[in-house]
Amino acid sequence: MFIDLHCHILPGIDDGAQNLKQAIAMVEMAIASGTKVMVATPHMHPGIYNNNPATIEAAYNTLKHAITQRELDIELRSAAEVHLCPEVMLWAQKGLLPFIGEYKHKSLLLLELPHGSVPQGTTSLVRWLHSNNIQVMIAHPERNHGIWKNPYQLSQLLKLGCLFQVTAGSFLGHFRQQAQNIAESLLKADSIHIVASDAHDLEKRPPDLREAFEQISLLSSEQHAKRLLWDNPAQMLGKH
Ligand SMILES: [Fe+2]
């Protein structure tokens, strides 16, 4: 059984599920692969995906209603994948940040860095968030091209107290060799907090966690895989 804390399953509000039919097909695939809880995390990225708590709630209600009508056996929650941008501070102050859950009594934020780099200013934003009772979890650091060039940045982010979410497909070679190497070395160093699907569709980035669970079990242990795909996310969601 798995908990998926990062997926783009809400219909029509980002580059994930494009409509309700596709969203339902993704939910069915997740259920078939053993997922019990999904937290929908649409992009909040000013100028690209202009989501806010209201747009997310509306799409969530549509999908939740369809899941209930079809009696699908899954718990759906919603949060967001928030892009690193100056608006983050404003949103935090106005209470407009959707949080994944909690971590050590802090609100847990899934923060996305640009794909190509770890920009200057990341450190100060993370410090500001941490001092405002918001815990940062970095979305898929293993896929960041700046980190590929300078993996030392991973230890800097860990030293700042960031948590790491690694994408399931990175263990399966879906995101180039560099991403796989970093995912494996983070796993070996026990520096990953959760593994999630980051599902966007049914084919290229599907909501299937089982294969990654098996691969992590082989690379490390089944207990470790369970910690990343159930125990840690359950704790973040307040499920015991
Ligand atoms: Fe994502």
Automatic annotation (TrEMBL):
InterPro entries: Caps_polysacc_synth_CpsB/CapC (IPR016667), Pol/histidinol_Pase-like (IPR016195). The keyword Transferase does not apply. It catalyses: O-phospho-L-tyrosyl-[protein] + H2O = L-tyrosyl-[protein] + phosphate. Pfam families: CpsB_CapC. The keyword Hydrolase applies. Keywords: Hydrolase. Its EC number is 3.1.3.48. One of its GO terms (molecular function) is protein tyrosine phosphatase activity. Belongs to the metallo-dependent hydrolases superfamily. CpsB/CapC family. This is protein-tyrosine-phosphatase. It comes from Agarivorans albus MKT 106. The lineage of its organism: Bacteria, Pseudomonadati, Pseudomonadota, Gammaproteobacteria, Alteromonadales.
